[in-house]
């Protein structure tokens, strides 16, 4: 029972996003024809997954301590796991898990700094800051809260993976990372709609709280436009192979989720098919992009 509670706070259904983002960074490094170090790839993946687990568990612990867990309506995509209100004695274990996985991520980062040099330190510091500050501070700044998920997963994981594998800073991974940046921002943005009232009651100030669901949906539409237009543009300019156009296919899922956002607003949690489409688009798009970059 205790292990099951702990695993629930890891939010395992969302952890698939991490290897997908690492895979996208791997794909751009692969095109550079750099010899692949299997140990480095394994450590990158472990460090990235540990970072994801850390931010999830620290968020779960903070939501339990603030009382937010008792106010949200749980869905498969929003409101937290609900594990700690049912087993409050596991709170300390969840906090320990968050700190342990954060320490593991930092340890792997220090190994890479020792191996490749100090030039990768800034990305590591930003990533660590995002993990530590996401729940207590970032969620109280609408704009930071809007872009923090995409920055952590879309930019830092993709570009960081590319740099650690190829040991080079090139423009391509930065450009490619903007697609998951936009879609992962949308992933968290839409999931905040059902939690508006509960989040507001504990002092959070997410983008939907500050600007309402209509403007949030407009921001969602803007991210969609940038994410998929960029893929087409990079193909047209020859930066990506034509096969990458297949990664535009999940656009239909994003548009479907957008219709749900406009139609149901803060009640979208009662219509999980829209939230599911949003999650699917955020995962399938970078996955298809990575596969087509390698194949092309």
In terms of topology, how is this protein built?
Blueprint lengths: L1 H8 L7 H15 L6 H29 L16 H4 L4 H26 L4 H13 L8 H25 L4 H21 L4 H6 L5 H30 L14 H14 L7 H24 L1
Structural account:
With 296 residues, the chain is mainly α. It has one domain (2-295). 73% of the residues lie in helices and 0% in strands. It has twelve helices and no strands. Helix 10 (207-236) packs antiparallel against helix 11 (251-264). The longest helix is centred in the C-terminal third of the chain and has 30 residues, at 207-236. The radius of gyration is 19 Å and the shape is globular.
Going by helix content, strand content and strand pairing, the class is: mainly alpha
Q: Work out the count of structural domains.
A: 1
Low-confidence stretches: none
**What best-fitting shape do the alpha-carbon axes yield?**
globular
* Fraction of residues in helix: over 70%
Count the DSSP helices. 12
Order of helices and strands: HHHHHHHHHHHH
Search tags:
mainly alpha; 73% helix; globular; 12 helices; 296 residues
Quick structural gist:
The chain has 296 residues and is mainly alpha-helical. 73% of the residues lie in helices and 0% in strands. The N and C termini lie far apart (47 Å).
């Amino acid at each position: 029972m205790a292990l099951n509670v702990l695993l629930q706070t890891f939010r395992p259904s969302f952890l698939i996003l991490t290897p997908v983002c690492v895979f996208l960074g791997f794909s751009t490094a692969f095109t550079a024809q750099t010899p692949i170090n299997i140990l480095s790839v394994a450590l990158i993946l472990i460090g990235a997954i540990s970072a994801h687990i850390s931010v999830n568990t620290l968020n779960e612990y903070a939501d339990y301590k603030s009382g937010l867990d008792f106010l949200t309506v749980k869905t498969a995509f929003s409101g937290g796991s609900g594990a700690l209100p049912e087993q409050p004695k596991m709170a300390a274990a969840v906090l320990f898990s968050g700190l342990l996985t954060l320490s593991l991520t930092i340890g792997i980062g220090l190994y890479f700094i020792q191996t490749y040099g100090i030039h990768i330190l800034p990305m590591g510091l930003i990533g660590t800051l995002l993990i530590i500050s996401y729940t207590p501070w970032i969620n109280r700044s609408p704009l930071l809260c809007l872009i923090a998920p995409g920055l952590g997963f879309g930019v830092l994981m993709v570009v960081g993976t590319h740099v650690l594998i190829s040991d080079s800073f090139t423009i391509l991974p930065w450009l490619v990372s903007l697609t998951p940046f936009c879609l992962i921002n949308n992933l968290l943005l839409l999931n905040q709609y059902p939690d508006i009232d509960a989040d507001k009651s504990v002092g959070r100030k997410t983008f939907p709280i500050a600007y309402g669901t209509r403007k949030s949906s407009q921001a969602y539409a803007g991210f969609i436009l940038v994410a998929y237009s960029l893929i087409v543009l990079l193909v047209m300019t020859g930066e990506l192979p034509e096969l990458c156009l297949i990664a535009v296919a999940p656009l239909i899922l994003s548009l479907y989720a957008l219709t749900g956002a406009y139609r149901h607003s803060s009640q979208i949690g009662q219509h999980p098919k829209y939230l599911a489409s949003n999650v699917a688009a955020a995962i399938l798009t970078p996955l298809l992009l990575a596969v087509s970059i390698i194949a092309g």
